[in-house]
Amino acid sequence: MRDGAVITVDGLVFDYPGKRALRGVDIAVPRGAVLALVGPNGAGKSTLMRVIAGLDEPVEGRVQVCGISVLDEPRQAQRHLGYLSDFFGLYDELTVRQCLVHAASVRAMRGASAQAAVTQAARRVGLADRLDVRAGALSRGLRQRLAIAQAIVHSPDVILLDEPASGLDPEARASLSGLFRELRAQGHTLVVSSHILAELEEYSTHMLAIRDGRVSDFVELGGHVQAGVQRLRIRLAGAWQSPPGFWEAQGAGLRDRGDPLLLTVDMPGQDAGAARLLKALVEAGAPVAECTVMRESLQDTYLRSARVPEGSPA
């Protein structure tokens, strides 16, 4: 297992009859990440999830989850996995509680530990007050919540969710975003596919873009700047000329200036570095009117990756 990675995929190739769906996919997903899996229809997103989940066997390549080979030790690997497909099924005649008890039993959970897991999973997805309602009587959105609860009932290290917000109303989607942030804070690693990029942006830490079965981009979100560096946009109230060697002394990188009153600066040190730079600017007489941290949106990141010609560096 690569250092810090909870999911590793190496040289993954998968074929459907007459079609190659995955073409040499290599990724390493760090523990605690929420990975937004994006790409056009037919790109290979669902196939990649199914292979990681151990449901489909590739032609070539290796997949590890928590250091365990999904191909060689599928049962052991699946103890660390939760998976929700885009087309899920429920036992309509069972109650919410019975569905979750069954999901727990499939994971070899019994007795008090299973009951506690059922209660916790129902609470996490907002179904604690519907434990005795039949699954068939639930709305589309509540059925989706139940399916997610089944996927996380055993509190897996890795949770794979294919279009989990499909059919949810805005309030339920907001609740789901909160759930994903909570799961991440607890150390879980999530892989979430969706066509709603603005929704993914609310909780994702990384983006994996797939196109025609290949990885077109794999980046950490938050500005597409190297780790530990913030990109700042500083607006000046009037003209100012920096003293010789000013930017070098601060360890800052001044980017090309199209507007003399608008500075774009790459500054190491995160918030502490930004505060230090602002103090130095004021002391040097710069009429600073505003300073903001520039963050590239998930949609910007994805569209930029889509414009990169195949075989070119992202």
TrEMBL record:
Domain ABC transporter positions: 7-237
PANTHER family xrefs: ABC TRANSPORTER, ATP-BINDING PROTEIN
Entry keyword set: ATP-binding, Cell membrane, Membrane, Nucleotide-binding, Transport
GO MF annotations, alphabetized: ATP binding; ATP hydrolysis activity
Family statement: Belongs to the ABC transporter superfamily.
Keyword Membrane attributed: yes
Designated name of the protein: ABC transporter ATP-binding protein
Source organism per UniProt: Ramlibacter algicola
